[in-house]
## 1
Amino acid sequence: MIARLPGRRRDTSTAVDGPLHASRAGACGEGEVPVGRLRVGLVCGHFDPARDGVADYTRHLAGQLRAAGCESLICTAHRYARTPGEEIVGVTDRWDVRGVRRAARTISRLPLDVVHVQFAPSAFGFSRAVGLLPLLLPAGTPLVATLHEYGVWTADGAGGGLRSALWSVLERQQRADREALVLTVEADRLLVTAPEHADVVHARFADRRLEVTHVPIAPNVPVARLDGEDVPSAVRASLGLPPDARLAVFFGFLHPVKGLAGLIEAVAAVRRVIPGLRLVIAGGGESHSVHGGAADAMRRDLEEAARHHGVEPHVVFTGYLPEDDVSRLLRAADVAVFPFDAGVTAKSGSLLAALAHGVPTIATSPPGALDRPTEVEGVLRVPPRNTAALVDALLLVLSDRALATRLAAAGRACADRWTWPRIAEYHARMYAEVLRRADRDEGHGLRWRAVARSGIRRRGRKEP
């Protein structure tokens, strides 16, 4: 289904498996754009993959796009422009309105075919100003937006209800979005990494014809090669644990809403039945959501929870780990646990990494969805903020070998549905389709103003 919105917005996204008519270089039909020539600017505000999930996603996508035949350039804040091993350009020093104007001027001078904004408030210092980018770039610039975080805006303080009502009017008229300003309505393609984000878009804009494409993410940690190593024994030895220890593992950025205090309490209860159980909490405490003193306080609170429940010697905090070490840890784990307060969605790269490694996995469902441990698509789902249910789930996985084996196989199959090469191939074809339609519209005189004097390219040639 193709939808049209008022104003500058052109044809919107097809379904993931729908027809895209781009071809590889050297095999193009009339009107088609060779994928191999495309150069894409991936706009990511804070390119710090060690502390931000959207940045890590952007890093993976950029590398895989190059493997798929595209050129990719990460457009980010100046302080990240010297990140080793990445093709990066600094476009601004901050992401407020003035900073986004500077970013737009810089991006306009780059030899790009398509601009792709990776939108999440945390990735832009919790500023919505990047949502003005479509108005600041030369009109007709091919623009794609991926919503990584969406549906989190709240109208706090005095007059919050009135502001929310005003935003609702603008959204029903498809003029602006309370969360992403005009980015949502001006993008040539609108992607989401979780289906519930598409539901929020449709609810806000009150128009199911507004096409939103769900493109799942892939595991954020590749499965490392073993090379004959006895990984379970080696990992336990590296952590100072006995070789017969049972390992429950949490992996990801630490955050107050991820239910880690409840997980510590649950492990303490399970240890009364399975005394060899250890909990490994792997991940950095510093992120763009929690940093500085707040990150230190959160770590102290978790350590205090371990002391309070009498399991301090049996809870290991690793801090940030390189990808290969995370892979080895997951290979050694008996169970992976993700007890987020709001539930864990399929856009969690950590969840997918655990599934891809064949680890029996427990994760919370959205509030109200379940009242007891339930198998759902390779994951043993439990209600959030329910320590008793989490204890039951841990005991089930650690004592029922058949259940653990079934979860491992089903989880791996689920993770294998989407891989980074497949995601990159979809993006490459989508970019080519966006550019093909942009060229067609320009040829028909449908563009509002020419992209002359900018660096935006057409068919691999920089405009004069």
Note: The chain has two domains: 35-218+419-451, 231-415.
## 2
Amino acid sequence: MSDIHSKALPGISRAAWKVALLAGMASYLDAGAIVTNGTALVLYKESFGLSLGQIGELSAMLTFLFAFGALFGGRMGDRFGRRIVFTITMLGLTLGTALMAFATQVWMLYAATAIIGLCIGADLPVSMAMIAEEAPQGAKGRLVAFSHVLWMIAICTVQALQVLVGDMGAMGARIMWLHLLMVAVAVLVLRSTLPESREWKAARHRLDASAHDGATREDLGTLKQLLRGPFLPPLVALALFYGVANLSANTGGQFATLLYTEGAGVSVSTAGAIGVTVLIVSVISAVIFMRVIDKPSRMTWFLIGGLLYVAGQSVPLIFGVNQTTLMCWQFLQAVGGAFAGEPMWKIWSQELFPTLLRSTAQGITTFFTRILAAMAALVTPQLIVSGPSTLFAVLTAAVAFTTVIGWTWIGQMPIVDSESPPLG
């Protein structure tokens, strides 16, 4: 990717860090809600009389509604501004987590899951755009990458909380949801102090002025802008990159314990201990990614990360599934994925689209990714039980594919000038 990074990294003001933290909490709440939901449903099982089918339905509902929330929220963020959308989503998330924490009937769990899924999905693309638009030139990558650090911190926090309340049944589930409720309320209050994105306001003003002066104005209520001309290739490329690369990350997140227990004969407690160590490595890798993403060497780091990512998937494929190969898979994935996975999608999504299409594009690629992940999750357990070699062959091919298109295609795309409105 061309000529955007100076050798000397600029300083970042407290105001920019504030935006990065408060908008970036979308990633914290995203990861926190997903991990909390998985544990809390198990803890609620006896108290609410939940069947395994209902637990599956609630888990699938969260994923699917996240996808639709991202699609809708991303578009609304481009049309009406960042601030109003992520304020509404925080209000909704506050309601949803409160309903989860104080639920007394099964229908309340379904209602809360629907609200939470839609709101965290809608919040994420808009918040990422806000971070990039308020960051100083030369530091946009670092501040967007900071959101991934928050994502990892959320997982660590929720898993630590799970250890403390895991034997408390329904009360433990309520405590876990109360943690997210308190975070959502705090973020809602603090986000009220943030002004609208200056870059979005300026782009919208230019667009309105061009229409007033008689210039041809595109209908911002349609997706024509992203489905033609220079914006379609990056949209397709990023959808493929994020969607396919996420298959590996999603497998590690949802099914690592199943792989250890069913494929390698390892106890759940041992798998959990390995998972904690992997999380530590992931956080360290995310911090390093922050430090290098705005440097000219970013694509070198991407290539190294991609090779490690591919190597991680191939170890169980070549040497068979056992505790050692699964540990290699997770640790190499933690490092490689930080430089050639979702964090790079977040960066590229800010750079390859103009301001008034930025969160729309992220919403579309997020929608595609989450739907693909939900579909893959339907067959992954069967692959693990019947023969995990097929699973790791697919994952190796998937990550090799995304590394190639990232290096040869996306990485060569020109960065869009945010000063130019998306006019035909």
Note: Residues 15-197 form a domain with the Growth Hormone; Chain: A; fold (CATH 1.20.1250.20).
## 3
Amino acid sequence: MKAARMLETALKDPFAQIAQFALDPHLCVPDEVLLQTSTLLIDTLAVAAGATRLEVAEIARDFASDFHAAGRPEHSAFMLFDGRRVSVPGAAWALATQIDNLDAHDGFNPTKGHIGCALVPALFAFAEQRPDLSGRQALAVLAMGYELAARAGIALHATACDYHTSGAWNALGVAAVGAHLRGLGPDALRHAMGIAEYHGPRSQMMREIETPTMLHDGSGMGALVGANAVLLAERGFTGAPAITAEGPEVAHIWADLGQDWTVMRNYIKPYPICRWAHGALEALRQVVRDHGIDAGDVKAMQVRTFAQSAQLFAGMPETTSQAQYSLGFALATLLVHGRIGPEHITGEGLRDAQVAALLGRITITEEPRHSARFPAGRWSDVTLTLADGRKISSGDVNARGGPEAPLEILEIRDKITAIAGHTLPEARISALWGMREGLLQDELKFADLARIVTPKCDD
């Protein structure tokens, strides 16, 4: 009965419900949701730190510095882990591009993509003009943005004939975060979301899978478009209503806004590899753990997975982008090294002779039963043929890190060090991790976290 009433309300005035939720200065967010949002925030910042020395990250930050300057100080923001100031949209774009290209950030299965990699950069860029913002308030705004972006993504996938990258829809979440922090009203928010949807990069995900590049999942442009949309709407620029938010055919997707906190079902990745590979990686991890197998024992590996996963990059990658959108290479790396870190998908890791030798023993095929479970899950199974003739099968295994198989909190803490440890000293990593619970304290300002993540990594 309650669900029916919520749907009726959404159909009568779809945007009124969205605006009330997005702009409420006293938005009530449960503590468990705030803590989950804080965990995702810290995880995302660790990925940002770990990505600072990637070639694409340096290109993005230098480009923003050269071409996204702010005309006035109040229109500028720091680029995190860099220390230079650029325009608010430039700062959001550069950091989102940086995070997007170290594929270790969180995601939400029904959207087939990622939210935090665009929203976190926007949050920091817009929050600079809000020194009064508390940690709890910032987390509430971020949680709100996750909820709007998640529904925008689900709505787009339900109504578009092609599979678009995350930037196509997480731009709407960025617009909502910016509108809230700048104190805009419902009309301006409506135009901002309309601008963000209209100009959002309707980039085709499978093109990037076929030929992996620095374009990655489009979230850099999603952050840029969403930030631009807010600032344009604030000045009176008008935009068509966002049909993924206001169309009657998607009203049911938005009807439970503020009731069902989808952010609780976001996953945290254990590896900096495309999520589509994680079901097979977890299957291999379990087999190796349970049977004490090492790379030298394996004569052949048969992988059955869902269609999209089977289309990941084949062969030995030459670039970090190819490595992160790989399946065979990721499996070989995990078997050889027992883990996958930034060092395995960059530099000498791309020329690892042991991994290259093992890669030739791996066969990957689509399995219809796994394809039928996508995008709700990322299922795969592996069968190892050992040198002694034995065959060991994993059975069907889903990716780990989401609500169905969450990482332990200590595993997340270890991941922070594994991802950011080559760029940040342990003291700074510990300070960052300490903010996970600290942000929930009323007296702590969001600017206290910004002071940890603004200076260059080697400062």
Note: Residues 135-159 form the longest helix (25 residues).
## 4
Amino acid sequence: MSEQQNIEYKQSWRDEYLKWICGFTNAQGGKIFIGIDDKENITGIEGYKKLMDDIPNKAVNHLGLVVDVNLHKKDGKHYIEIVVPVSTVPISYHGIYHYRSGSTKQELKGAALHNWLLKKSGKNWEDIPVPGATTEDLDLETIRVFLQKAISKDRIPANAVSENPETILQRLNLLSKDGELTNAAILLFGKRPYAISPTTSFKIGRFGKELSDLRFQDIIESNLLTMADKVMEKLNDRYLIRPISYKGLERMEPLEYPETALREATLNAIIHKDYSSTWVFLRVYDDRLEIWNPGELPEELTIEKLKGTHSSYPRNPNIAGAFFKAGYIESWGRGVNRIIEDSLQAGLPEPVIEEDMKGLRVTFLKDIYTEEYLRKLGLNERQLKSVFHIKEFEKITNKKYQALFKVSRETASRDLAMMVELGVIYSSGSRGAGSYFKLRK
């Protein structure tokens, strides 16, 4: 069995492998085999009798942890199996907390360590009480709108409209055991949520082709329940265009990216964000739109599982619960599917969803004609650049192709004909000086 989340192989014992024991017990537990190489060949181990005493004693002395140490023999070679249990309390090795993730060992630091320690204690960042916070810090209009939406969705009783703010927050699990307002309460309904978490704000930027080409930017500062609407308003007003088309006599003006998919991605970023970390960033480029939020996927999920049928594992259950009751999300575990479905129905490529920099990024593409896709088709450098020229100037002529790449008419015709055959471009159909080529939608 190859190295994975719960298995590690070492050819010999070193005391520094106590770090691996620490990492296993802080994660899902596991087994460490001493005397087996990475290819699962039994190499054997010398001094195994002494190690049978040393390893469990060192685990107790350095980690305060009891591990099972078993001796095995195969083909005349001895090897040791260390069975590491899951610890219910955080375990450190010389003051450093290690954690097993996949087939690697990580040192937990900063926000990752803070959140993990909270999780080990059975708490989330959203559940921490805010010292000195009172109902005076809440925005009553946000509460009123929330109640209106939640009652209309039949997700809270109609008589809740007459309840005081404390009772409503209690219903939503937004008060501590001592009746204090939690971080989630202030983030959802607060007048100034950025006072307890400066990175609560949502950053939007308009770029050219590259990250270094920032044209303008905005920061959305509001409580979470009004944030998605404000983000969409800003995108509509300043960042995105509405190409005009006609369906029969009906004038069509949808956004260049489907609004339903954008809203869903925005809501996901807000709900699943790690609020002890940095901001959410929405970047609009010439050819794509990216939404990135801090916070790694839970251990139970992968990108592929996100795209299929899966249960929901919200990072902030109480924040997610409030959004559900207000009807902003219809069901848990379907957000990514809706983003993909709505994008495909709008005639756009499937959005790219990836983990990056301890966060999750969703990238909406205007068309499939990315450099990676075009290279897979076998386009040469001239053809590749001609596609980007058409993207910028809408069309290209044979004469323009010759001038751009300093080639003969025959070469230009051959290159363009190949692109037509591949279905990348199409001809206007006319001949002579008036003919041109455009990208096939």
Note: The domain at 201-299+334-365 is CATH 3.30.565.60 (Heat Shock Protein 90).
